[in-house]
Amino acid sequence: xxxxxxxxxxxxxxxxxxxxxxxxxxxxxxxxxxxxxxxxxxxxxxxxxxxxxxxxxxxxxxxxxxxxxxxxxxxxxxxxxxxxxxxxxxxxxxxxxxxxxxxxxxxxxxxxxxxxxxxxxxxxxxxxxxxxxxxxxxxxxxxxxxxxxxxxxxxxxxxxxxxxxxxxxxxxxxxxxxxxxxxxxxxxxxxxxxxxxxxxxxxxxxxxxxxxxxxxxxxxxxxxxxxxxxxxxxxxxxxxxxxxxxxxxxxxxxxxxxxxxxxxxxxxxxxxxxxxxxxxx
Length: 281
Known about the structure:
By secondary structure, the protein is an alpha+beta fold. The protein contains 12 helices and 9 strands. The protein has a single domain (3-217), classed as oxygen-dependent coproporphyrinogen oxidase (3-Layer(aba) Sandwich).
């Protein structure tokens, strides 16, 4: 694959095919993320967060942009701290961004889970298991969570139906773990969708197994882990280059509001207030 394809911007993809109806692809890909969410929430208890009120489905007055944003919280000391299931874009005009992200509490140090689908109108897929320790120095952590799925990652990386997709955001590249998947699909086919469905659900099942078997983090280390989690979570949303594209449709103020809700910045602030400075750092 040519490097020019790998580093092509979303704007360039859209300029080549700006008005493709992706309604059927949206249904298939959003269905995969919903199935993943249902598997996770069947095991890990969450409840809707108040910040999502009124955002279950929204659209602009002219119908040019639409979406859904559903944030959830669990027990921040025993399970999921933040889960968000969302999509944004225009199903009939090429551009879609669909996400499921699960951020765990500091009682365990299992990687966080990020799953993304998009259309530009080519199918985009990103998934990652976000490290909670430094895998460059904590080789036990690397070998516990990343080495066992290395062969699975290499198999998808070697599938010639997919082209590696490079984020233009330096933070987003720093965000990636050794098993991050970031691909554009060569075809918009049922076979591609099924391949990605299998990859996503296998990753979810593996991750849930880690959560079940996790060793508790010592109590004295949890505040520092939570503080790091909150920084990674905040920057992972606020530094996403996709935000700039959305601002062209929605304006900076509205995008900033939606990003803050997706990131759970209010939940982070409320937890900080409830625990106090000593409870977080």
